[in-house]
Amino acid sequence: MSSLWSSYVAVAGLACLMLLSGCASTGGGDSAPVGGAGGAQVPADAVPRAEPLSRSGNPPSYVVFGERYHTLKSAAGFTERGIASWYGTKFHGRRTSSGETYDMYAMTAAHKNLPLPTYVRVTNLENGKQAVVKVNDRGPFVAGRIIDLSYSAATKLDIVRAGTAQVQIEAITPGQDVPVVNAPTASPGGAKGVYVQAGAFAQAANAYSIRTRLAAIPVAPIVTHRLTRAGASLTVVRVGPFANANTAHAMLQKLLNAGINDAQMVIVE
Predict the structure, then answer these.
(1) What mean pLDDT comes out for the span 111-140?
(2) Which phi and psi (to 5°) does residue 92 adopt?
C-alpha cells in the first residue's frame, strides 16, 4: 500500500507553508474497493494534454516529515526508476495537491517533485506492463518509493496484490506520440511473449533505420510487423520474444545504453 500525505495547499505569501489534509501509512487502513472495481473495466490510459500548472500544487519547495522537497520547473526529459506503490479507498474523494478530487478509478498518480500536472508513462519492470497516468498529487513520502499510483493504474500494472513493484517512469510531452504497447496482435509467426520494442513508426524508412541500428549493436532476434491503431498504420520494431521479464529488462537496458531512448518492454498476448 502507499504511504503519503495526499494533499497540501500553498498559502499566498508563505511559499513553504503546507496544510496537509490527510495521511496514510503502511497498515493504516487504506485498501482496494470492496469487490474490486465493481465489474467496471480498467479505464484507458490518461490522454496527455496541455494544461496550466496547478496554482496550489507547485511551490518552489515544501517540507514533509522534516524533509524539504523541491518542485521541478519542467518535466521535459524526466525519467526515474524505483519502487511504485498505490493508494485507494482511504483517499477516494479527497482533495489532491493540485486541487483536483482524488478518484481511485481514474488513471492518476502522486510524485514528490514533478510539476503538477505532468503526464508520465509507467512501466512495471517485473512484467513489462505499462500505463499512462496524470500526476496530480504529492507523495509517496516513504523512503525508496518514487510514485504512488491510483487503484486503477495499479490494477492495470498488476501490482495491487503485491502492493509495490519496480517501475520506470518517463515524462510525456502533450502532443507527442505515445508508443503502442500491449498490442493484441502477435508478431510474425504468431509468437507471443515479452518483447523490447525499439519503436513504432508511421514511416517505414524510420523503421528500417532502427533495424539497422539494432543489427549494429548487435541484438537478435529482431522482428517487424505492421500494426493498425486508431486508423493509422505503424511499423513496429521489436527484439524478442524473451523467456521472462528479467531477460527482457536486460535487453531494454542494453538498448537504452545504446541511445535508443524510446525502447520499452511490451507484452504480446
Answers:
(1) 92
(2) -60, 125
Radius of gyration of the chain (CA): 19
The predicted pLDDT at position 145 comes to 92
pTM above 0.90, yes or no: no
Selection from 20-24, 98-102, 184-188, 214-218 with the highest mean pLDDT: 98-102
Burial classification of residue 269, based on how many CB atoms lie within 10 Å of its CB (0-12 exposed, 13-18 middle, 19 or more buried):
exposed
Q: Among all chains, which residue has been given the C-alpha cell 514511416? A: 203
pLDDT of residue 36: 54
Q: Which of 128, 143, 172 is the last residue of a domain?
A: 172
Question: Cα–Cα distance between 161 and 169 in angstroms, integer?
Answer: 20
65 plus 96 within the same structural domain: yes
Residue among 114, 83, 117, 76 nearest 100 (CA) = 117
How many CB atoms sit inside 10 A of residue 126's CB?
18
Residue-number span of the structural domain to which 66 is assigned: 4-172
pLDDT above 60 (res 34): no
